Amino acid sequence: MGQKLKIAGWIALGAMAGALTTVQVQAVARGTLSPLPLEELQQLAAVFGMVKTDYVEPVDEKKLISDAISGMVASLDPHSQYFDKKSFKEFREGTSGRFVGVGIEISMEDGLVKVVSPIEGSPAFRAGLKPNDLITKIDDTLVKGLSINDAVKRMRGEPNTKVQLTIFRKDENRTFPVTITREEIKTQSVKSKVIEPGYAWLRVSQFQERTVEDFARKLEEIHKESPQLKGLVLDLRNDPGGLLDAAVAISAAFLPENVTVVSTNGQLEESKFVYKAAPQFYLRRGGNDPIKRLTDNTKGVFKTVPLVVLVNEGSASASEIVAGALQDHKRGVIMGSQTFGKGSVQTVRPLGPDTALKITTARYYTPLGRSIQAKGIVPEVLVDETEEGNLFAALRTREADLTAHLGNGQDKNADKPDAATTKAREEARERARLRLEEETRKNPGQRLMPEFGSDKDFQLQQALNRLKGQPVIVSKTQTERPEEKKEN
């Protein structure tokens, strides 16, 4: 057995050495070659060999290596990730704003899938699905008991394949089947409306490949409907971020040409960069520039229109870049709650045709040089989610709450929160959790917070008050979060 183990170990080491040679060549190409820790790599190979030969049952070699890579990358920070074939496909769908499915926005109600809205022009839209329809079965599978993610996976699939949905329409008190042919769906990450004459709302829910085009088109529609615009609310609440160049483009729509939007800095020379409000910094492949078209078609009105930017604890990454740029250039008033605090840049490096590494390569900095990593953007005007206060905000996770989060890079001597601050946060979370449970029991399946953009949206109403010069109901409890030092 000992001889077999030794042979297996050396075979594994030989395989890894071949792979490491490739890594070494790539490191030379980047000009960052450093000696490899051979003793530790020999241990890794030995462990691989032992697991392969001694584990109680046979193991999949490829899965072992894949899991080892995943573990190594996951230990760096919460945003670095190894993509296997499946996760890489899902990631690309997420950033492209395209997927294959039926084309509905959904939520859960009483354990069933509720249609929030069919996407215009989608197969579900053409099949006549309506808001508030309940999906009780997907093909032969009862929806009751499925998670929302499981339901989504069952409705997605390959193009031109069919899925049968069983629909319960409450207002007609009837159940009926609908067979829908799946096709590629293009999601809308931008919504807008003129709330009242002279005042408009535009929401960006994620920064995807199509976001800039959709954003420019929506602002053109707003200008056409309300050419004498007096104020605009840019809503970035719960926007988790996305593509950096999309954030630069949207910032450029409101800022003077060529001013700094964001800068990045990391180990690699290519990660040290300043992005400015100009086409060469956000156009990927040249060609059509939606931001220039927007400026030309609206005579630059959005460069000067009074602006309020709504953010909250769910605003992260690219949305924080936009908020930080507009704040530093004093282009608008930031209102709401302190943001998530994801001030790092991830680069996706392909490892093959269907696998990749997403790795943190830089921190980003606002135009005035502020790192918001693990801190966030602090609004000039702190406003609660509702007139009753921030009911469930304490339950939201922030960057500083994530295990192994990257440090700020600027506030190295910042004190950790004292025991009293930590205790107060835990107590606030417990109160919010108990309230959520109580509200869920009293109103099963109902929306507990007002829909963004609705007439019950308290923060939006305060943003409109600000634009009109009317009194704003500011928060009596929110304060800037204390600096938090990364655990070593």
TrEMBL record:
Keywords tagged on the record: Hydrolase, Protease, Serine protease, Signal
A Pfam cross-reference name: CtpB_N-like
SUPFAM superfamilies registered for this protein in UniProt: ClpP/crotonase, PDZ domain-like
Record field: compositional bias (Basic and acidic residues): 412-425, 478-488
Domain PDZ, first and last residues per copy: 88-156
Gene3D superfamilies in alphabetical order: 2-enoyl-CoA Hydratase, Chain A, domain 1, 2.30.42.10, 3.30.750.44
Region described as Disordered: spans on this chain: 404-425, 468-488
Protein name as catalogued: S41 family peptidase
Annotated organism of origin: Hydrogenophaga atypica
